[in-house]
Amino acid sequence: MAKLGLNYNCIPISTHAPTEEKDVVAKENCYSSLEKVCDAVPNYDLKTVIRDFNAKVGKEFYLHLACGGQRLHNETNDNEKRMVNFALGRDLAETGTWCQHKDIHMVTWKSPDNKICNQIDYTQVDRGQCTHVFDLRSMGGAEVESDHFFSESQN
């Protein structure tokens, strides 16, 4: 938990949503648990929901309510629709899609053979506190045992 001044705390909430191929019950259970955790955070604290939603954000116009215009994928998958509904229902905004970056800085996961690149990890912040995030991009090359890239916030 990070202290952001005198009035509120930054509460990071990490999640790992089921992949697109998983059944509906597993997805609903995941989001139900995530909703309970988010609802337990006091309204005056800054919620930051981070990590792997296994969602591909498309470039459809209706997504602009929850996401910025900088997205790697053309079409939205079912997991993204769930993520957007969650974000809108909790008044969260997806900050990793706001600023223009090269595609390589939007990629958050690569297949082992490096042939498939996806943007499936996201950072959501309370819409009313979004001014604290100026830029967010993925950083490859971390020395950890993971096929995901880390995000770096620049504020």
What is the strand tally? 9
Q: Report the end-to-end length measured between terminal Cα atoms.
A: 17 Å
CATH topology: Deoxyribonuclease I, Chain A
> What is the CATH architecture annotation?
4-Layer Sandwich
Number of helices: 2
Mean pLDDT: 79
Order of helix and strand elements from N to C terminus: EEHEHEEEEEE
**What structural category do the secondary elements indicate?**
alpha+beta
What integer value in Å does the Rg equal?
A: 15 Å
Strand order of the largest sheet: 1-2-3-7-4
- Poorly predicted segments: none
Question: What is the name of the CATH superfamily?
Answer: Endonuclease/exonuclease/phosphatase
Q: What is the count of structural domains?
A: 1
Describe the structure.
Helices cover 19% and strands 26% of the residues. By secondary structure, it is of the alpha+beta class. The chain has one domain (2-154): Endonuclease/exonuclease/phosphatase (Deoxyribonuclease I, Chain A, 4-Layer Sandwich), CATH 3.60.10. A five-stranded mixed sheet has the order 1-2-3-7-4, with helices on one face. The protein has a two-stranded antiparallel ribbon with strand order 5-6. It is globular and about 45 Å long. The two termini are 17 Å apart.
